[in-house]
Design brief:
The protein is mostly helical. A two-stranded antiparallel ribbon has the order 1-2. 26% of the residues are buried.
């Protein structure tokens, strides 16, 4: 205490700052980072949770190379990314762009768009699963039949199941993206638009030359966050497919679900950790691309 009392005000503030920072640092170190680094070592072992881990070198990665299910899940994961990210960002921007021009009931409409983001994923996935059911249960097939169209298999089709699972995932994250786009649009000074109109610029020129360039930091942030979210998709697939298997015939099974099944259904912890390491590398590459894009912003 005597040492503390002899410190200057600035040093006391630094001590208290580090004391408060120590709590989240210890939490993330023990709960997040330590298990993550531990899993890197497990990736080079054979372990079934019952016997001690056995070091096997690169055997798990060799198994991965010759595993058709792994390559199918990796393909599905990138399909979620390639389809989900641009579609969700496009819808979110269009909604935010026109919602920003609404003056009456703006707050209510924005809250309605944000509500799906607050909804429990499990409940939402089961509601959408009910929508996709065959007649006379499923809402979508009843609507199609009522206007004379053929009913669709949706979740029972190897070609339709992935887009059917992707649709609620896009819908769920739309509100978060809309709110951030609105914040970015509101941050653009109105004087830029006034000067452009005085110079005779049209609506599309203003959008192309002012709005989109000044929204670049927001777009890059949402691009990376959305990409990571679609690469880690799990809840929707687990709850919308039979037995949470990512069917039919692994057509909707993402890499995260494959890791879960490998670890907690097959008890191949080493092989699951090896797949986790691959996913970590993919996410790391995307994060590095984010830093590169942010450095190049205007």
């Amino acid at each position: 205490m005597r040492i503390y009392s002899n410190l200057t005000v600035e040093k006391k503030q630094a001590v208290w700052a580090w004391a408060f920072l120590a709590i989240p640092i210890v939490f993330f170190g023990l709960i997040r980072f330590y298990p993550a680094f531990e899993s890197f070592g497990i990736a080079f072992t054979r372990w079934n949770l019952l016997s001690p881990p056995e070091f096997i070198g690169l055997d798990n990665f060799r198994q991965m190379i010759h595993d058709p299910v792994f390559w199918q899940t990796l393909k599905n994961t990138f399909l979620y990314l390639i389809l989900g990210t641009p579609i969700s960002l496009l819808f979110a921007f269009v909604i935010a762009y026109y919602l920003d021009q609404v003056r009456f009931g703006h707050g209510v409409i924005r809250a309605l768009y944000f509500m799906p983001h607050l909804t429990t994923t499990v409940a939402m996935a089961w509601v959408w699963r009910w929508f996709y059911q065959p007649m006379p249960v499923g809402l979508f097939n009843n609507m199609l039949a009522s206007v004379g169209f053929d009913v669709q298999p949706f979740l029972r089709s190897t070609t339709q199941a992935l887009p059917a699972v992707l649709a609620p995932a896009i819908w769920a994250g739309l509100g978060f993206q809309v709110v951030l786009f609105l914040a970015g649009l509101r941050a653009i000074p109105s004087s830029y638009y006034e000067a452009a109109r005085i110079d005779g610029a049209g609506r599309w020129m203003i959008l192309r030359e002012i709005t989109l360039p000044l929204l670049r930091p927001t777009i890059v942030f949402l691009l990376v966050i959305s990409s990571i979210g679609f690469l880690r998709i799990f809840d929707h697939v687990y709850n919308m497919t039979d037995n949470g298997a990512g069917g039919p015939l692994n057509s909707t099974r993402p890499l995260v679900l494959n890791i879960y099944d490998t670890a907690f259904r097959s008890f191949q912890m080493g092989y699951a950790a090896a797949q986790t390491l691959v996913l970590f590398i993919i996410l790391l590459v995307i994060s590095l691309l984010q830093l590169r894009l942010m450095r190049g912003r205007p």
